[in-house]
Write a sequence for this structure.
């Protein structure tokens, strides 16, 4: 969807899986260090939200701890003991970064392994335990 190019943080691009899932791929290295490895160092789930501050408060009220926050633009939650990080970005900024329309066409369902009861956040993302 967006070819790999050098950015401020390294190299990155956007791909779409056969099921429609859109993934932003990034490498922190700013130099070509050899052949690509099929190794994932970190998995970040980025949610595009209408109101970052309101969504941040919703997740804090559910027990998450904020690791980084940049006003109403970006929030990263501290997720100790998990292989993934949850972040919130403004919907417009995330759509632009991924190269998709602001309206979006993807799923708003997230399945996690947890004992937590299913819930829906202010942006309609449905969190369920399989």
């Amino acid at each position: 969807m967006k070819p790999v190019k050098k950015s401020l943080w390294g190299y990155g691009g956007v791909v779409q899986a056969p099921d429609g899932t859109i993934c932003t791929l990034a490498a922190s290295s700013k130099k070509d260090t050899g052949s690509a490895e099929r190794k994932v160092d970190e998995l970040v789930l980025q949610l595009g939200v209408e109101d970052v501050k309101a969504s941040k408060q919703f997740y804090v009220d559910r027990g998450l701890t904020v690791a980084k926050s940049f006003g109403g633009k970006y929030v990263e939650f501290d997720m100790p003991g998990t292989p993934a990080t949850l972040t919130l970005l403004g919907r417009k900024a995330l759509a632009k970064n991924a190269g998709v329309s602001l309206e979006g066409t993807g799923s708003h369902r997230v399945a996690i392994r947890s004992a937590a009861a299913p819930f829906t956040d202010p942006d309609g993302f449905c969190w369920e335990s399989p």
